Amino acid sequence: MSTNETNCIFCKIAKGEIPSYKVYEDENFLAFLDINPHGVGHVQVIPKEHYRWVWDLPSGGGQGSIGAYFEVVRKVALAQQKAFNTEMIRSQIFGDEVPHAHIWVWPNDASGDPKDFDTNANKIRAALE
Question: Name one GO molecular function term (predicted).
Fold first, then answer.
C-alpha cells in the first residue's frame, strides 16, 4: 500500500474507517453522498481500489474495470432520476481535489435540502431496488 492510499480519504471511506451516506456498494465500487453537495442527491462514485485517475482503471468489461465503473455510474444516475423525479443528471469526472478516481453525479434541478443526507440517501437506495 502506498502512502497515497494510506492517507486517501476515499480509501478510508471505502474501508469503513470514515462514515458516509452510502447509496450503492458492490465488491469493487462505492457510491456515497458528497458531504459538500452541489445539489440534492450529489453522489461520489469511486472504485474501492485506489486509482489516482479514472483513466487508470483497467480496460475491458470485467469486474473492477472502467466499463464496470461506468455501469455503476449509470445505475446511480438512473436511480437519481427516479428518486428525485428529474430528467437531467449531471456528471463530472474529478481527481484534483482528492487524489482518488471519482465521478460526481447529481440531479440538475431536484428540489429539497441538499444537506438532508438521510432522506436523500434513502431515496436513492430505494430507487436502486
Answer: catalytic activity
Q: Which of 39, 14, 24 is nearest to 73 (CA)?
A: 24
Amino acid at 110: A
pLDDT tens for 65-82 read 999 999 999 999 999 999
Which residues are known to be catalytic?
Answer: 102
Q: What is the CATH number of the domain that holds 27?
A: 3.30.428.10
Half-sphere exposure of 116 (CA within 13 A, CB side): 10
Of 118, 129, 91, nearest to 22 by C-alpha is: 118
Say what angle helices 66-84 and 117-128 make with each other, to 10 degrees.
110
pTM, rounded to two decimals? 0.93
Domain residues for 80?
3-128
